[in-house]
Design a protein that fits this description.
The chain is an alpha/beta fold. It is built from 8 helices and 7 strands; from the N terminus they run E-H-E-H-E-H-E-H-E-H-E-H-H-H-E. It has a 7-stranded parallel β-sheet with strand order 3-2-1-4-5-6-7, with helices on both faces. Helix 2 links the parallel strand 2 and strand 3. The longest helix has 29 residues. This is Oxidoreductase, short-chain dehydrogenase/reductase family. Keywords: Oxidoreductase. InterPro entries: NAD(P)-bd_dom_sf (IPR036291), SDR_fam (IPR002347).
């Protein structure tokens, strides 16, 4: 008899699921039996990812309440409920001196990285509480929220806020059997949002220079395992935290970083 898949019968929303870490998470969840709804700004990329992974797609802007409401409706109408929320969508600005950061830069990272998590809980927590249904929220944070480095001050601060809020909600909603955890990857080649409509690779923004093998060497020299985080690394970590194997794990920030934060 084949073993039961780790996420069988579970329904998950994965934001920013068309590319990068989000796609890796969605792929792993589908592989492990979950019914997955990819939420993404890009209709073309989101639809293509959903078709390839054989899951659902909803175009959504994670900074809009009505889009979160639509995601919940889709989960309930299509699959009968919701179990797992992966807040993966994120944004950054180019690595640069803090005194040159614009108000637009600041608003972007706080709106996409922090407000989106608040909206997810503001819209979805009442559902879990009303249904008395165990829930699982996982935020994709960053090593920048744990070991900040110069020139990305407000991006770092946004990820630190996500980690702190996750721990706080883990304590607050633990008695209701709603778990909150986060994962913190080190830099990797992702499709992180940097534009309100288009998603573009952003590794060069973190490096502050072109994303070449030579320019990566300096960054990767401080990662003991010697490589960046991959979408599979993050997908595997999120799968564990979302599974019943982690039913007693809440309030954890799991660093998926090859030892970067040690």
């Amino acid at each position: 008899m084949a073993p039961q898949l780790r996420l069988q019968f579970k329904v998950a929303i994965v934001t920013g699921g068309a590319s990068g870490f989000g796609r890796g998470i969605a792929a792993k969840f589908v592989e492990e039996g979950a019914q997955v709804i990819i939420a993404d700004l890009s209709e073309e990329a989101g639809g293509a990812a959903a078709a390839e992974l054989k899951c659902d797609f909803v175009r959504a802007d994670v900074t809009r309440r009505e889009d979160w409401e639509a995601l919940l409706r889709t989960a309930v109408d299509r699959f009968g409920g919701l179990d797992i929320v992966i807040n993966n969508a994120g944004a950054t600005y180019a690595n640069k001196p803090t005194e040159t950061v614009t108000e637009q830069d600041f608003d972007l990272v706080m709106r996409v990285n922090v407000k989106s998590v608040w909206l997810s809980t503001d819209v979805l927590l009442p559902y879990f509480l009303e249904k008395r249904r165990p829930g699982c929220f996982i935020q994709v944070a960053s090593t920048a929220g744990v070991r900040p480095r110069p020139n990305l001050t407000w991006y770092n601060a946004s990820k630190a806020a996500v980690i702190n809020a996750t721990k706080t909600m883990a304590v607050e909603y633990g008695p209701k059997q709603i778990r909150f955890n986060s994962v913190s990857p080190v830099v990797g080649s992702t499709g992180m949002q940097v534009h309100p409509i288009f998603q573009l690779p952003t590794t060069h923004l973190f490096l502050g220079k072109p994303d070449t093998e030579e320019n990566r060497k300096g960054f990767l020299s401080v990662v003991p395992l010697g490589r960046p985080s991959t979408s599979s690394d993050v997908g595997n970590a999120c799968c564990y935290l979302a599974s019943d194997e982690a039913s007693f794990i809440t309030g954890v920030n799991l660093e998926v970083d090859g030892g970067r934060c040690v």
